[in-house]
Amino acid sequence: MATVELTKDNFDQIVSENDFVLIDFWAAWCGPCRQFGPVFEAASERHEDLVFGKVDTEAQPELAAAFGISSIPTLMIVREKVAVFAQPGALPAPALEDLIGQARALDMDEVRKSVAEAEAG
Questions:
Q1: Number of helices (H), then strands (E), in the chain
Q2: All structural domains of the chain with their residue ranges
Q3: Which of the listed residues 17, 56, 83, 112 has the most CB atoms within 10 Å of its CB?
Q4: In what residue span(s) does the Thioredoxin domain sit (predicted)?
């Protein structure tokens, strides 16, 4: 599956309708973003069951601000409407594959429990 362009108009719908979304916050002027782009795109072709979205931080400053994006590229993984990973920096393909595997292996019941405990604490 090709990557989806995420905008303030479609972001909530795509994240709420899909259980596993990888989001690349990027900008055209960013060298590391341009290096990471093909890695992200190739992963999207290998993992057709997942949604890969890209947020152009120049075109969508509200989304970048809403998530506190201060460095790009930033990769975020959202599983079942919970952000389970967010980190700036371009990843090499093997690291991205490892990260996808770790995110797939998460017990989301445990993650939700931890989030609820943190919010209550």
A1: 5, 5
A2: 4-120
A3: 56
A4: 1-105
Tokens of 117: 């405990």
Give pLDDT tens digits for 61-116: 999 999 999 999 999 999 999 999 999 999 999 999 999 999 999 999 999 999 88
Hey, what amino acid is at 53? G
Maximum alpha-carbon separation in the chain: 41
Inter-residue contact 89 to 34 (CB < 8 Å): no
What's the pTM value of the predicted model, to 2 decimals?
A: 0.94
Q: What is the pLDDT of residues 32-57, one digit of tens each?
A: 999 999 999 999 999 999 999 999 99
Tell me, what DSSP letter sits at residue 54? Answer: E
Domain 4-120, architecture per CATH? 3-Layer(aba) Sandwich (3.40)
CB atoms within 10 A of CB 103: 16
